[in-house]
Amino acid sequence: MANTKQSVPETLPLLRDRIDSIDSQIQALINERAQCAQKVAEVKLAEQGGDAVVFYRPEREAQVLRRVMERNEGPLGNEEMAKIFRQIMSSCLALEKPMRIAFLGPEGTFTQQAALKHFGKSIVSAPMAAIDEVFREVESGAANYGVVPVENSTEGVVNHTLDSFRDSQLKICGEVEVRIHHHLLVSPHSNTDEVTHIYSHQQSLAQCRAWLDRYWPHAERVAVSSNAEAARLAAEAGKNGRAVAAIAGEVACELYGLMTVSANIEDRPDNTTRFLIVGNQDVPASGKDKTSLLISAKNEPGALYRLLEAFERHGVDMTRLETRPSLMSRWGYIFYIDFVGHYQDEACQAVIAELRGRASEVKVLGSYPVAVL
């Protein structure tokens, strides 16, 4: 017998009712999660007590976000879904203890964008004027963590960050990668056709050189201290009736109320900057980790070869090697090495033990989860 039952068409009012019902369930579950986070804080205070309590656990958050991406079935993409959970986790953590995050400022820089991407928006932002000030702010306890750039895929390593680890006792607690998208921005009060000057940091101007040569060859390019400063100047110019453009990112665009003339104008679409999270804690293994070392090699033939040979023999994947002057002796050098694994892993411990026997000094800067977002 034929099935004569007809399906009810999904009309717009019915779909909206479903969305309202789902929203109500989501909201109730988020609040339930927040209540659990508050109870976690109470348990930690009871067990650890006072200032010794560690509310932020980088390895735990990395594991949660990885599971979010693994079980995601769409239609939202894995990264988009993880970003949603990232903010939920940030809001819940703020109920335990709002974190103060120092970063290389001013506000509106890509470093602030990295801080928000890693910690979510429920933090207290603390822009610093220089990288060494970020380190001091965390060392003094005025900030819980700091965010500093360490390398760019087109411009290379940030030496000031590497050098700051020489005398600091801070640990690397995490990393975050930010795809660098530059936008041409103007004030809503400005006439784009009248723009004669384009402000930005010198590196951003260099990273957009071909695009500017093609589309804005007659505009004068003015290098300023940061992209955020360029955005501020463009906003100020618009209020004064002048037409000035800036090259900056999304955070600066929102912060200074600018309008995007052209988006993603960088010459290399894969331009990415890696940032480090620095703090005072050792981070337990998360299951997918990276370790960073500072090594002072002995000044003798074959010293570097013997250091690198230990990684090959124990099957540990070294992902980065940088050289910096030691400042302790003329033509002396120290090496910064990143490798895959946690320093507590058996193979990694074997490598570090051999390095200590072959180098003048080996300093473990930290083991931390590989960037999830």
Walkthrough of the structure:
The protein has 373 residues and is of the alpha/beta class. The protein has helices at residues 12-47, 58-71, 78-96, 110-119, 131-139, 159-164, 202-207, 209-215, 227-239, 250-255, 303-313, 346-358, and strands at residues 100-104, 124-128, 145-152, 156-157, 171-179, 183-186, 197-201, 220-224, 244-248, 259-262, 272-279, 289-297, 318-325, 333-340, 359-369. Strands 1, 2, 3, 4, 5 and 11 form a 6-stranded mixed beta sheet that branches. A 5-stranded mixed beta sheet has the order 8-7-9-6-10. A 4-stranded antiparallel beta sheet has the order 13-14-12-15. The longest helix has 36 residues, at 12-47. The termini are far apart. The model has no long low-confidence stretch (mean pLDDT 91). Residues 292-369 form the ACT domain. Residues 100-280 form the Prephenate dehydratase domain.
Average predicted confidence as pLDDT: 91
Spans of at least 5 consecutive residues whose pLDDT stays below 50 are none
Structural class: alpha/beta
Q: What radius of gyration results from the CA coordinates?
A: 25 Å
Helix-strand sequence: HHHEHEHEEHEEEHHEHEHEEEHEEHE
Beta percentage is: 25-35%
Measured as a percent range, the helix fraction is 40-55%
Beta-strand segment tally = 15
**Count of discrete alpha- or pi-helical segments spanning 4 or more residues:** 12
Q: What spatial form do the alpha-carbon principal axes imply?
A: globular
Distance between the termini: 55 Å
Largest sheet: 6 strands, mixed
